[in-house]
Design a protein that fits this description.
Shape: globular
Largest sheet: 2 strands, antiparallel
Strand content: 5-15%
Helix content: 40-55%
Order of helices and strands: EEEEHHHHHHHHHHHH
Strand order of the largest sheet: 1-2
Number of strands: 4
Number of helices: 12
Distance between the termini: 80 Å
Length: about 270
């Protein structure tokens, strides 16, 4: 990585005199560094990596849209998993620590893909489509892989270098073993003063693991069974019918107007 050294002259008032001071700012000429397929930018906000994913998915959406009337439903689903889903889940537990606003472009691209998969209109609600296709939205995918990582940590499936990354509250309270608290067996969540720090794995992963409500799923030791039950849990959280609160939603108004026309025709027929 190459750097640019920028000299800046700062002027400040000290008593009755105006003094000057030179400051050197180091700016990188490379937007991000790629390591194991993930782009790390200087601010660690992963904007550059997300932009690369969006660019790749946008190219695939063109071919996906052109072939939707040729391929079968099973073939289209296989194409989605191979060309779009694979880009979304690669390194997701790392770059998903970014701010939620940076994920909006990826969420929009995934919704476009799920509408193409189900031959739905461009403005249709996607939550029923995700459930019908048994595909998790991006926000659930992020939670899925983070809690899956913590399940491997608690069951001892990770390398030994991760053994002491998180400890329970009982181990942390040294010298207070006689005090029994209800959260003694929970993982200790490190204190974070900044919101950006709260999104980092050290704070975010144990919080998601502790707040997950279903203990029967969390402590399943078999990884295959855990993934199956975990995905079923998220799919049950999705609604079969859209829960729309928009007053002027074109998709809902179109459907309601069609139902109104059908009901009016039936009433006129029987009256």
């Amino acid at each position: 990585m190459s750097f640019i050294f920028v000299m800046k002259e700062l002027r400040y008032k000290s008593g009755s005199r105006i003094r000057t001071r030179m400051r050197i700012d180091i700016k990188s000429t490379v937007p991000a560094v790629r390591y194991l397929g993930v782009y790390f930018d200087p601010q660690l906000n992963f904007k550059y990596h997300i932009q690369t994913i969006v660019a790749k998915i946008s190219k695939m959406l063109y071919f996906y849209r052109q072939s939707k009337h040729i391929l079968t439903q099973k073939a289209k689903k296989s194409l989605y998993y191979s060309s779009i889903h694979s880009h979304l889940i690669f390194g997701i537990i790392i770059w998903s620590c970014t701010a939620e606003s940076n994920l909006n472009s990826l969420i929009i691209k995934q919704k476009m893909a799920i509408r193409i998969l189900n031959n739905a209109p461009y403005n249709s609600h996607t939550e029923p489509l995700f459930k019908a296709s048994e595909i998790l939205p991006l926000n659930m995918l992020i939670e899925f892989f983070k809690i899956q990582f913590m399940q491997k940590f608690t069951q001892g499936f990770l390398p030994v270098s991760f053994n002491d990354v998180w400890v329970t509250n009982r181990i942390r309270r040294v010298g207070q073993e006689h005090v029994e608290l209800r959260n003694n067996d929970d993982l200790n969540i490190p204190y974070a003063r900044l919101t950006s720090t709260e999104r980092q794995p050290l704070c975010n992963f144990p919080r998601m693991w502790t707040t997950f409500p279903d203990d029967q799923i969390k402590f399943i030791r078999n990884i295959i069974e855990f993934n199956k039950k975990f995905k079923e849990y998220f799919l049950k959280c999705l609604n079969d019918t859209p829960m729309c609160n928009r007053l002027l939603c074109p998709n809902c108004h179109l459907r309601n107007s069609k139902n109104a026309v059908v009901n009016t025709g039936r009433n006129n027929l029987f009256n």
